[in-house]
Design a protein that fits this description.
- 50% of the residues lie in helices and 15% in strands.
- By secondary structure, the protein is α/β, with parallel strands linked by helices.
- The chain has one domain: 3-Layer(aba) Sandwich (Rossmann fold).
- Strands 1-2-4-3-5-6-7-8 form an eight-stranded mixed β-sheet, sandwiched between helices.
- The longest helix has 30 residues.
- The chain is globular, with a radius of gyration of 20 Å.
- The mean pLDDT is 89.
């Protein structure tokens, strides 16, 4: 009997060690600034779908690089230096804060739509924390980033005045960031939100990725990852969600997602849309992969953006 207890104790200890080791590995890969392996694994389908549009994307990025812009730096509420670029638009009477996705960049995620967006207003292209020139050791999947988004909105309010309309536009993790930000006490000049292919919560996207890798949800492993998130990155995978933010949000929101998204299931956007009680619109771009809704359904997407601006500023 004693031998059996010793064996069981050793087995439990070994299992715990394995969970902690693999939890640390997955935490580093998923949350650290340089942990790109998960990004490469889960975005392989989306990356291949970008192939036919490579020339357009490159042209859009080059156009963005050529545009005259002002470099901006602000401080986050946890003392990180956040970086962004301000571009004057053809319509200077509103400004759009563009929030890129996980291991993305403003040039990659907004390059194609930049010319269209500049017709609508000024652009503030930001580097999310732990990306580009912004400081930060860990990515928090929207939990801390949404507070950074509020800081950028406050900066714009001080710079442009309280009457200047501001919109939040996010893609992928950027979409999650702006939706979570909608649950915060944003400045009154933030009038509306555009959220493209967002995931519902850090836990949901980590679980979704883990299920793809292991063919089932490894709850103990995710719990181990969450432990490292709490101890080292100061957030929990269950700390916030887009659906929870919708309970506090009062802003009009344009939701968008591709029905063939192999990275973030479009049902996550549907869940946020269903939870939203404010004015809302939903574009489900048929057969569009991750982040390609604007490319696949440009006319409808652009019309919905102009409609959002018109409705928000008519009631302002």
């Amino acid at each position: 009997m004693q031998t059996v207890l010793i064996f069981l104790g050793a087995l439990i200890l070994l299992t715990l060690i394995i969970l902690l080791v693999f939890g640390a590995l997955f935490f580093h890969i998923a949350c650290s600034r340089n942990g790109r392996l998960i990004s490469r694994i889960i975005s392989s389908g989306a990356a291949s779908a970008l192939g036919p549009y490579a020339d357009k994307i490159k042209k859009g990025q080059e156009t963005l690089e050529r545009r005259q812009k002002s470099e901006i730096c602000i401080r986050s509420d946890d003392a990180l230096t956040l970086h962004g670029y301000f571009l004057k638009g053809d319509c200077p009477n509103r400004t759009i804060i563009c929030v890129h996705g996980y291991h993305g960049s403003p040039a990659h995620d907004f390059g194609l739509a930049t010319e269209e967006l500049l017709k609508c207003g000024n652009l503030l292209l930001i580097d999310q924390r732990s990306h580009g020139k912004s400081e930060g050791k860990y990515i928090t999947f929207g939990v801390r980033e949404c507070r950074d988004c509020k800081a950028w909105a406050n900066w714009l309010c001080e710079r442009m005045g309280k009457e200047h309309p501001v919109y939040l536009d996010g893609v992928s993790m950027g979409g999650t960031t702006v939706l979570m930000a909608s649950g915060l006490d944003l400045p009154e000049n933030v009038k509306g939100i555009i959220a493209d292919c967002s995931f519902t919560s850090p836990y949901d996207i980590v679980s979704c990725v883990a299920c793809r890798i292991f063919k089932r949800e490894p709850r103990l492993l995710i719990a181990s990852v969450d432990l490292y998130c709490r101890v080292f990155a100061g957030f929990s995978l269950n700390e916030n969600s887009t659906t929870a933010a919708m309970n506090k949000n009062k802003l009009p929101i344009l939701f968008a997602h591709g029905t063939s998204d192999s990275l973030v299931p479009h049902t996550m956007t549907q869940a946020a849309y269903d939870a939203c009680t404010s004015s809302k619109d939903l574009i489900l771009a048929k057969d569009a992969e991750h982040g390609l809704s604007y490319l696949i359904d440009t006319e409808r997407y652009s019309a919905a953006i102009y409609k959002l601006f018109k409705e928000c500023e008519k009631t302002a």
